[in-house]
Amino acid sequence: MRVYLITSTPYALLHHRFQKIADTLQKADVSVTYVEHTYGWREFLRHRRPMLFSEIVRSALYHARACARLLFGATKKSLHSWHDGERRDFVIVSLPLVIPNNRFDLRILDTINASVYRVALEDNVLAAMNSSETRIAVVDNPFWGRILMKGDFTHVIYDCIDEVGVYAGRSSVERALLNERLLVNLADYIFATAHSLEQHIRTLDTQKPVRRIPNGVDYQWFVDQAEKNPVPDDIALKNRPVVGYVGTLYEWIDFDLVQKVAAKFPEVSFVFVGPVDRADRIRVLSSLPNMTWLGKKSYSDIPAYVQAFDVCTIPFREGGIAESTNPIKLFEYFALGKPVVTTAMNEVKPFTINNLSYMGRDVDEYVEAIGKALADNSDERRFARKEVARLHSWKEHIGQMLAVFEELSSRTW
Q1: Which of 39, 263, 285, 405 is the 20 to 30 A CA-CA neighbour of 213?
Q2: Among residues 283, 290, 204, which one has the least CA distance to residue 242?
Q3: How far is the C-alpha of 394 from the C-alpha of 390, rounded, in Å?
Q4: Distance (Å, rounded) from C-alpha 408 to C-alpha 402?
Q5: What tens digit of pLDDT does each residue of 161-185 get?
């Protein structure tokens, strides 16, 4: 059996769900091909700028072949294939760049992009397959609904990790929903990270098998890293208490809320760790004397930062991602027993029971929640949070995925 993980997040970019799936499957001696694509040039430039010229050339050639295919129904011989006659247990395949089309309603661009990915998939993945083994594809982006075909893989699984609005701009949500319906129809099985996503999938197909598999944490690694690493210098001298956030600081963060809450607690240090996508957001995160943005840090350093926080936050903007996301960082915070304050997030609500976390729907409620969290020094609750993190280990969740892979694989023979 070989598992093909097809994802919009490059393996080396972030410590995210698909990277954890890949790493855990390798430990279980499962062969993995990690097919990564970056749907936006901005992300590529931020992380892989030295490769820009060669990638533009490679991508341009693929676009030319894809357009020829659309016009004439044929393409020339493969540009590149990683297949060299050897079986490699872990392979990373990077697909070419395509034209971003999230902000516009240009169906022709979707058609071209789908054709580019199709040609690249045939060149770099399908041509290298071993037809005698079970080939299971796990896909996280609904766009692949218009690219994949029956017979490409033995089985296809849609891993629904967010509602489609996360992938699409306002003008392209309708097309993203159509692509998702195509992917659901093609899939043999569906994973969903959140209750709302599971319910959404069931409205699209009442017969398709769906299993809720939330995100998790590498519990023991996170705890060990926090214990062996000292408090980072850039946070050690901050006034205590410290309210902190780790993760990407993109459009789903409620920056207005963050600024107003920090103004209510001048004696508290508010610290933000992670990449920011726009300069104006950096200005907001440094707009008050008690607010500090520390930039992006190595993932191996993140546990030490979380350990230095007195209260951890997830201030996501209302709607969209807050309604459907199952936040990895919640379980990372819990692994160190930290009280957590969030905005109104459906997947966090169960953990507000017994004050494992606190929730605020507006500025006043968020201020009140932080006040309660700062006063939370209960050993009992710290222990309970750690127990939640243990139950949400990646090993446990991905073990459930592996059971499904093996079930599907057994149907083949």
Answers
A1: 39
A2: 290
A3: 9
A4: 10
A5: 988 876 666 657 888 889 999 999 9
Verdict on whether the full-model pTM lies above 0.90:
no
Task: Set out the domains of the chain in order of their start, with CATH numbers.
Answer: 2-216+394-412 (3.40.50.2000), 219-391 (3.40.50.2000)
Q: Can the peptide bond before residue 241 be classed as cis, meaning omega within 30 degrees of 0?
A: yes
Cα–Cα distance between 209 and 160 in angstroms, integer?
Answer: 13
pLDDT (tens digit per residue) in 90-126: 999 989 988 776 666 678 888 998 999 999 999 999 9
Task: Provide the residue type at 259 as one letter.
Answer: Q
Sheet hosting strand 340-342, strand order edge to edge = 291-293, 269-273, 242-246, 311-314, 340-342, 357-359
* N-term to C-term CA, the chain: 12
User: Does residue 46 contact residue 107 with C-beta atoms inside 8 Å?
Assistant: no
Q: Map tokens 């070989």 to a residue.
A: 2
* Phi (first) and psi of residue 17, to 5 degrees: -55, -50
